[in-house]
Structure formats: C-alpha cells, structure tokens
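ok trying again, last paste got cut off:
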Amino acid sequence: MTPCPPRLILLAPMEGVLDHSLRDVLTRVGGVDRCVSEFIRVTDRLLPARVFLRLMPELRHGSRTPAGVPVRAQLLGSDPAVLADNAARLAELGAEGVDLNFGCPAKTVNRHRGGAVLLDEPALVHDIVAAVRRAVPAGVPVSAKMRLGHRDEERLLDNARGIAAAGAGELVVHARTKLHGYRPPAYWDRIARVREALAGGGTRVVANGEVWTADDARRCLAESGCDALMLGRGLVADPGLALAVRGLPAPGWAQIGPLLPLYAELVRPRVAPRHRGGRLKQWINQLRRRHPQAQALYDAVRTLHDADALEQVVRAMTAVEAPAMEKARGPVQHAGFV
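nice, full thing came through this time. structure:
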C-alpha cells in the first residue's frame, strides 16, 4: 500500500470557480504544493501577453500565489503548432510550467474540439504534448491532465503512453470518463493501470477525482498506487482538506469563515457588482458540504442580490477578533495558518 500522506498535493483547475482570487485564499490555508490555473483557451493564434496576465496574474510575481505556492498555466486547444507558440510565450512570461487540458467535459469545449473529446485521438494528444515540450526550455516542466477517456476507456493506455512518450513529466488522471461527468464514484483502480503502464519512465502519475475527506485520500492512494493527489471540489468545500490529508491539524470554521470576507475583497476590484455576489454565494454553497455553519450563512444570503448588502451579512456572520482576521490575511506557512 502506498504510504499516506502523499508526497505531492496539487490544487486542481476548475473553470469558473478556482480563479486566482480563490487560489490566493486557499493557498493561504496551507498543505498545497502547487496549483494549476483555469484553462486558457487557444484557437488559431498567439495570444497577447495581457491575456495571460489577466487570467493568471501570478505571472507577475514569479508564477506564485501571495502565499508562495507555484502556479502552473494550463492551455486548452487542439492545434499543436498554435499551442506550442502559446506555451513558448508563457515560458517567456516566467510560467512555472505548462499543463495541457485533455479532461474538460464541458459540451461547448468538446464541441469546439477541446478537452476530453481529444482522447478519441491519441496520436493528436501525443503530437500536442510533443510540440509543447519542444517549444519550451528544458527547465520548464510540461504536464497534462486527462480523464479515463471520452465515451469509454478503450484508449486509456494509448493516451497515457503517448503523453509520456512525448515528454510530459507529470500526468494527472481524473478517474472518470467524459460521459461519467462528475457523478460518483471515481474509478481509482483504473489509475493503477496507467501507473503500471508508465512504470520505469520519467512521468509521475497523479490521482484525481472524488476525494472529499482524508479517508477518501487514503483509499484513493491505495487503489491507484500513486504517491500524489490533485484535489479540486473537495478542497473548495473544505479548505483544510490538504492539511488533513497530510495528517496535520486542519482549521475549523472559526478560521475558515474569515476567509470569505477576504475573498470578497479580492474579487471586488475586478468583478462587476452584479456578479460579485454570485461568486461569493458560489463558494458558500460549496462550503455547505463540509461545514454546517456555512448552511446558516447560505440561508441568510441566498436571496440577496445586492453585492454590498450580501458582503455586509457575510462579514457580520463570520466576524472574529482582529488578531484572528490578521492571521487569515497574512502569509501562511506550508503547515497551515501562521
């Protein structure tokens, strides 16, 4: 059985959820080794630097969150040459690494030949990874994220072997197909097939999917045989999950609640007032899954549409002593709140 805690914990990319503001807040809690950005959609041209900087402002700060956690940029597309050009631009901007998206299940993305639908074309998947690997300096890591397949798992190992042969140093496997979506369960034992197929090479396999608790993490590592995890919805719902998975004390609601006003402050300068409240309610809704106190907060704000009024309620219901709030705002060590 693979030992727990894992050697590496990654924060997943989650389109429309895990933007740089939430990455900032969650990495202050501790336990996360690296993040992956929301996907940056690439079609037929080289994107200007301002687009990368807008979607991943951590590029201005050494490709790290304010807590010092590295962030890897994720690209999504289907044209190897154009993806390679954009990867090279990211390397010039100081990206910690380049990740490639072969896992997004969104219909709109798949319809435009991006994400999980590419798993029907293992040769193209290989060519994309190879082109990106050639385009960036040797010291810039290239990684990929994939599902078990598009409609089925028939090409699972073909895709995994192609990604590894093309030079990816890391492969995250979400243990469901595109058709499975996010419905439980996740088939962690299928990840073991990938790990065994790539054994002895230079590609680390990272397990992902349906890890909500430390017990889930232990079972996932045991069934997959991996020594690394990527956490997504589980960490959004429970910001202390990475610490718990490592066997470290995890913060309770008294520490997590004050993160909500902090998140609101980070969102405020860049999101229109009519959308600000929605972003905050979206996270509170996720927190309800693991924190009963979040249910009362959600009930209090659910029908509010004015962002200022909503934020005022959140501040009042998560009020703590000033020193505790300063802990939430300040720099955070790897083991948790300073």
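cool. The chain is about 45% helix and 15% strand. The chain has two domains: 8-245, 253-329.
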